[in-house]
Amino acid sequence: MKILMINGSPHPRGCTYTALHEMERVLRAAGAEVQILTVGAGQMGGCVACGGCRATGRCVRGGLVNDAIDAMETADALVLASPVHYAGISGAMSAFCDRLFYASDGWANKPCACVVSARRAGTTAALDQLVKYPMISNMLVVSSQYWNSVHGNRPEETRQDLEGLQVMRVLGRQMAYLLRSMREAGLPKPEREPR
Predict the structure, then answer these.
(1) Overall pTM > 0.85
(2) CB of 53 within 8 A of CB of 23?
(3) What is the per-residue pLDDT for 184?
(4) Distance from C-alpha of 20 to C-alpha of 27, rounded to nearest angstrom
């Protein structure tokens, strides 16, 4: 099992990473290989709808978007994670996901989990925004026992959010379970209709 995690926070080891790391520990214990790609620290220009990616399956603007596309060629699943900024995902994560999901259309039936991190409020609005990317891409959305979110203003506060960390561990187990079940069932993927 190979899982790509996208950290949309400008703080590579901040609260969003703390949530991902809790999930990562469970996935690694289940035998998964996990890669975390941090995309929130730099300037991430948004999609300009040039259509250049339609010919190559890669964003003509290059950068981390194409790194993620390359990683997803061999990854079995994806995790999208973002801090909450003004009741939505970070601007860098929004620009990144717009480009990533516009440029590539080959991840149908791969599981995807979405995670958000907030000091206090806005998590459900941000989670709703983030989950739309896999939902429009025929991906299988993985859930936990509560909204996939953690709370805290600093990593040490996030580590005190015991319920949020439990949600991350359950999410990791759900992801591992789904991937193992898919592998063991060995069923062909459903037929896709073009958009």
Answers:
(1) yes
(2) no
(3) 94
(4) 10
